[in-house]
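Researcher: First entry.
Model:
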Amino acid sequence: MGSSGAGKTSLLNVIACRIGVGEDQGKLWANNKNYNYEDFGDFANYVMQADVLMAFMTVRETLTFAANLKLDCSQAEKD
């Protein structure tokens, strides 16, 4: 929580690798271990407030669509 301009969205964008920072800027820790940006999707996801959803899709169809894009596993596991 914080006032407008405090950096809340910027922090989330850095953590989710939506914007970059230099390697020497510091380290990010999650779940008590240092992580790199490629590992972010293994433990968290970030949905922006203005995320675009297809108005013609049901909630299940939307989640299935996202799972098919993101996950590398069997269809049964995605379901």
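Researcher: Second entry.
Model:
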Amino acid sequence: MTQRVTAKSDYLYVTAAGEFSLDEAQRRFLEMLESVAAFNARKVLFDGRTLVGEPKMMERFYYGEFAALSVARFANRGVSPATRFAYVLDEPMLDQDRFGETVAVNRGMRVKAFDNLEAARAWLEVAL
């Protein structure tokens, strides 16, 4: 997986590509949190529409749990628990039941998954 982070005026725009692997996704999430802390970002637009793979239910669980716990752990490094994350994905990377999103939200993360960029931008209240 590759990932590119671009700082916009009021959010981070993150693009990811390649084949999904849970270990790599977790590693990349930590890199993204480093950028959130460095830029003092409160909104993140993650565009993973070019990611490929079909994560299993448990991988979705582990990623959602990892993401939420990582956001909480980064609080002492300037990452606000109120930081909003919008994920834009295509199926099958995007689970139509949004299981990973539910896991993360239940653990305190402000995250929502979308199947289109415009809806994600509207939820974050940002311009592209």
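Model: Note on the second entry: The chain has a mean pLDDT of 96.
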